[in-house]
Specification:
The radius of gyration is 16 Å and the shape is globular. It is α/β, with parallel strands linked by helices. The strands form 2 sheets. It has a 9-stranded mixed β-sheet with strand order 5-6-4-3-7-1-8-11-10, sandwiched between helices. The protein has one domain: Dihydrofolate Reductase, subunit A. Helices cover 18% and strands 32% of the residues.
Length: 186
């Protein structure tokens, strides 16, 4: 929790813990309609969405959602001229509490949708992290879900190391090897 906000992360990762290729492009091997339906329904419930410049979620309702776009290009908080319900936010210049207040959210779920540094920034704060695995996808040299993902540290180990515990595994699309586990703060 941050104030009256519950912090929830959402990511689909490859078998090797990557969310995108080295160019920040999400490959087709990580795209899944059933996972997108889950994500879109969750984002519809969120009071705000936080993401970096490459992690815009799209979809028919995206423009209506309140969002903070994490960037180092500004000093603290600024209006985003290209997204009507968005603010640009530099965590080095303003707290998340200040940014959410400026955005006008009084409480509720704050959905964190990436990229790597943004997911890492919230590791101490997640109340839940919805980790979807695409078991058949591999992205060598890709961008990891968390900055410390490596051959020695999986996303699951990193979540556990930050006090989250796994819930039951849900097969989202068994034929495609897509499964979701929601990790929650102990």
């Amino acid at each position: 929790m941050i104030g009256t906000h519950r912090i929830a992360g959402y990511a689909i990762v490859s078998a090797d813990g990557m969310i995108a290729d080295a160019s920040a492009v999400i490959p087709d091997s990580l795209r899944n309609d059933t996972d997108q339906q889950f994500l879109q329904a969750e984002l519809d419930r969120a009071a705000a969405i936080v993401h970096g410049r490459h992690s815009y979620e799209g979809g028919p309702r995206a423009a209506r959602r309140r969002r903070l776009i994490v960037t180092r290009a500004i000093a603290a908080i600024a209006v985003d001229p290209s997204h009507p319900n968005a603010l640009l936010w530099n965590p080095a210049g303003a707290t998340i509490e200040n940014a959410l207040a400026e955005l006008g959210t009084a409480g509720g779920i704050v959905a964190i949708i990436g990229g790597t540094d943004v997911f890492g920034l919230f590791l101490p704060h997640y109340d839940a992290f919805h980790l979807t695995r695409a078991a058949h996808a591999k992205i060598p040299g890709g961008r990891p879900v968390f900055p410390t993902v490596s051959a020695q540290a999986t996303p699951e180990q990193i979540l556990a190391g930050h006090g989250l515990a796994p819930g039951p595994r849900r097969e989202i699309d068994a034929a495609a090897g897509i499964a979701l586990i929601t990790w929650e703060r102990k």
